[in-house]
Amino acid sequence: MAELSFVTGLSHAPGMTGWLDRASEQEQKSLTEGFNLLGEKLRATKPDLIIGLANDHVLNMPVDDTHDFCIGTADNWTGPAEWFRDRVNVDPYSVRGNSPAAQLLFDGLSGCGFDIISKSELLFDDNWSVPLKYLTPYYDIPLVPIHMNCIVPPIPAPRLCFEFGRAVQKIIEDDLPANMRVAFMGTGGLSHDPGGPKYFDVDEEFDRWFLGLLEEGNPEKVLRECTPARMSAAGDGGTSELIAWISAMAMVGDRKAITACYEPAVELRCGMGCVYWEMQREPKDV
Amino acid sequence: MGITDTKKELAANQMIFDVRRDPTLYTDFADNFETIMESYQLSNEERQAFRDLDIKKLGELGVHPYFLPQVSRLFHGGAYNHNNSPSAQAYGKSVVNGEGKTR
Question: Tens of pLDDT along A244-277?
């Protein structure tokens, strides 16, 4: 059985790489240090594979043909997609995939009844380009990308995303090759409202409340209190990307999240932050 | 105007989805959008909203909110997209300030 070596939830707003210099010096320092720390923590666990879960941003699944999840099965990925390149401000990159692992995940997850499709071609925008830039700056850890529908109703419910995370974890532990070490990242959020009236706002109160919930290490409380309505109120167009973090949370038991950084970065038009969970420690110890 | 107000069958939604994915469509979009709108059979209201760069109107017609700032970027560019950039400012003027037409 493979080992889940690292679990994280992090923001991926394009301002992090595209125009971070417009944020305050304090925000620049805090976010850069926090995201770099997250990368160090991830790489220290020496993962053979990263399984990522992120909003599709209506780039690969059109509004009239969405699915809850879409897994990428290619053996190689490139990014950023050309139209997004100057905005994201990330140089073109290539990262290996893992087709056999992706196929195992697809077979297992579809067998569990999840609304999931597979694609061998996916365009990457900020959803992967920003996290990879910080977490794996040499693009040397293979990625299985799972896109999800966070913004075209009906959106998968937090409880379903939690069960999805549990199912992914079970496949990692039961079906992926022995001795393989796997990191999981759920990326999106925090509060932001692309295309809405709160486009230039960040809901700092919501963000700090959500991070505080994760730090309590009580998944049922998160599921009970972090409702779709509450996420929507904090930014209808994007805050619900946090369902990717809820999938990540499903893998950690009662471990408490450790917040690496948070800034209500208005100039980036997004509450920016990241958390991780210490998987090497037993839940009761953290 | 929110994600639940999206009209999934709207021609503009299909057009914007495709445009961002296809260099032959997004390159010089601002100069060619009449031809592209014709090929996607946009309604007269949708076409006029693009001509006016009325992002607020596009949202009211049912364009998915996530596409709206991207429409602004198709005309104003997407690089260095901070809050005072031309594309962010046009979006703010039309939607956040509620002024509608931006040209």
Answer: 999 999 999 999 999 999 999 999 999 999 999 9
Residues in chain A with CB shorter than 8 Å from the CB of B86 are none
B93 touches chain A (CB under 8 A): no
Q: Which of A56, A53, A42, A52 is nearest to A275 (CA)?
A: A42
Q: Looking at CA atoms only, how far is residue B5 from chain A in angstroms?
A: 9
What token pair was written down for A258?
């450790």
Question: Considering the entire predicted model, what is its pTM?
Answer: 0.98
- Residue B55 in tokens: 């992002």
**In angstroms, how far is CA A126 from the centroid of its own chain?**
11
Question: Exposure of A267 by Cβ count < 10 A (0-12 exposed, 13-18 middle, 19+ buried)?
Answer: buried
Helix, coil or strand: residue A72: strand
pLDDT tens digit sequence for A143-168:
999 999 999 999 999 999 999 999 99
Decide if the complex's ipTM is over 0.90.
yes
CB under 8 Å to A244, separation ≥6 — which residues?
A: A9, A53, A54, A55, A148, A150, A161, A186, A187, A188, A189
**Rounded distance, CA A216 to CA A214, Å?**
5
- H or E stretch including A258? strand A258-265
Please report which confidence band the pLDDT of residue B1 belongs to, taking 50, 70 and 90 as the band edges: confident
**Closest chain B residue by Cα to residue A57:** B66
